[in-house]
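Input.
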Amino acid sequence: MRNTKVIAVVYGPREVQNWSQQINDKALVRYEYNMANFSTGDRMRKQKGDRRYTEISLVIRQTVEACILTHLMPCSQIYIFVQVLQADGGTRSACINAATLAVADAGIPTCYLVTSCSAGYLNSTPLLDLNYVEDSVGGVDVTVGIPAKFDKVTLIQMDVKLPMDTFENITQFTVEGCKEITNYIREVHFDCIYRDIGALSSKESKLLAGNHSIAQVIQETLRTSSIISFTLREAVENVELEGLLIPKGWKVIPLFRAIHHPEKIYPEHEKFNPSLFEAQPRPNTYLPFGIGGYSCPGSELAKLEMLVFLYHLTNDYRWKVVGEEEGIHYGSFPVPKGGLTLKITHKEE
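Output.
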């Protein structure tokens, strides 16, 4: 994005300030785009109700929101603020890239990184990332956004009509530019992760940051062996659900084990299959820590602790079960009958 400079800040997930805007099954994503008065050569002042600002904010919000796992944060709000400090062409792409990196760095769960790049022609020569002077010529200008690891496009914008062959060529050219930016942003993101978990050794931090299979094993363990059997809720008003009336004051008991084992959502649900979590689960079908405003506030810490524990257990120790397996006792919490005795030895011993 040449000399374009952008700052992005992410707040949340946090409580929705206006309850009338709260969404019960996912997080509300709000986005604000702004250009500083000194961002261009000429001093500029934003007009109230500027349609260009509104349109750019909407496009960028929709592009970035597509990569956020909003269903994991119901009844909450995520606020993304992007400010252009210096504009030299490609501001839209720069804002998308800054926003997606800020979201990832803030620890917001995402299914992929989305990156953007612009391209155009200058004297019949295709150019990536046009600066202000090149863009001002008034030729072809196409902005593209793509998600990492997916063969699809989430954003295409262009200022002029193009012949189909020209459109295909310039779009493919721009997609290649997006892939280069994806690699760069991924490196920057990993550097931030290594910094944040710097208390671990360098070897451990790299393995934990990049080993998605361990996270999938933990997710599948929580699905097949739900710690929480059920929870208890009370209807504060009359609720009609699929033709059935739940009167005010009645108690409702959601069964988490039943939610995690339907055949139509989890094929061969009785088998342990971490690959089920290579893609994000459907909303309200995976609730190991509950859902809504009363979900476990320490869920992210618990996931990190399980990740670190499993890493050290599998890499540094050997263990075996002592005695015979007697099965599981399912009460308020599932526990092994007769307990579970392990013999653990360090691999260096």
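The radius of gyration is 25 Å.
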